[in-house]
Write a structure and sequence with these properties.
With 289 residues, the chain is mostly helical. It has 11 helices and 2 strands. It has a two-stranded antiparallel sheet with strand order 1-2.
């Protein structure tokens, strides 16, 4: 695979940050990119459902075996809350990770075939293009979550939230968590402009996301020193915070510090991604042709 082009910013009708000179009134149609791609490749839908159902089934068996019929609480949760946490964490984490990159509109894939240059010459900026696509991806993942939640409640695997207030703050925390989810994925993807392949970075980020978000093991089971660090990382904002609010692990009346930290990570990661977009526009690496 040869290097065909390595130059400064590609020609585009905007500044180095990728700002759009002529915003497209139809940019919102990009939200349908991921759902339409999934629908075009229907076996992916079956595969996604199979992976989620399998993981939920195994986690339910695991938690029930660990509690072994005990009615007591472990780590502040009883068996019903633990199963609810695990099911929701799987729906939020696994579904979103599987769907990321489903449209193959990632920087890595575009750099490989050379079409990344079109990100910087469209009337719509590359940053806004990815943001609209990411919003559609998030809404599609949310649809999977809602379907799984409805099935889980109907099957008795997911307990309802302890109160209407808990449900309301969970929705807020989930929305902020999705923003953090998108920003983390975007930052990892943008590293492709500085590396020949982002495979290693993707693997490392996926492992960190799975472990430190509470998607694999609830954070309160971590050693105290690790938990004290993990709860303040952006990964925890994606899954642990909304699921902890839903299950009542974090009382609804005490949600402000957690939501405020989520909002802070949204701002910090957004600023960081903006800086990376500016630098990426000045460093265009194209592989393939």
């Amino acid at each position: 695979m040869s290097l065909l082009s390595r130059s400064g910013p590609a020609p585009r009708p905007a500044g180095p940050s990728g700002g759009s000179a002529r915003p497209s009134p139809r940019a919102h149609r990009l939200m349908a990119l991921v759902p339409r791609t999934e629908w075009a490749y229907r076996p992916r839908i079956v595969a996604t459902a199979f992976v989620i159902v399998t993981q939920v089934f195994l986690y339910v068996l695991l938690w029930r075996a660990l509690y072994d019929g005990s009615a007591g609480a472990v780590g502040g949760l009883d068996v019903s809350q633990a199963v609810t946490y695990s099911v929701l964490a799987t729906l939020m984490g696994t579904g979103r990770v599987i769907m990321e990159g489903a449209s193959q509109e990632t920087a890595q894939s575009k750099i490989r075939d050379g079409s990344v240059v079109f990100w910087f010459v469209r009337p719509l900026s590359a940053r806004r293009y990815c943001a609209w696509r990411g919003l559609g991806e998030s809404l599609y993942a949310t649809a999977w979550l809602l379907v799984g939640l409805a099935v889980g409640v109907a099957c008795g695997l997911v307990a309802p939230p302890p109160s209407a207030a808990a449900a309301a703050v969970t929705v807020l925390a989930y929305g902020l968590g999705q923003v953090v989810f998108y920003q983390i994925g975007l930052l990892v993807d943008l590293t492709s402009f500085w590396t020949i392949t982002s495979f290693g970075v993707n693997r490392l980020a996926a492992f960190a996301q799975l472990l430190l978000s509470g998607g694999l093991i609830p954070l309160w089971f971590f050693p105290e020193w690790l938990r004290a660090v993990a709860v303040h990382l952006p990964f925890a904002a994606t899954i642990d915070v909304p699921v902890s609010l839903y299950t009542g692990r974090v009382p609804a009346a005490e949600f402000w510090p957690y939501v405020a930290e989520q909002a802070l990570w949204c701002v910090v990661l957004a600023l960081l991604s903006r800086v990376m977009w500016r630098r990426a526009a000045r460093r265009l690496l194209v592989l393939g042709g």
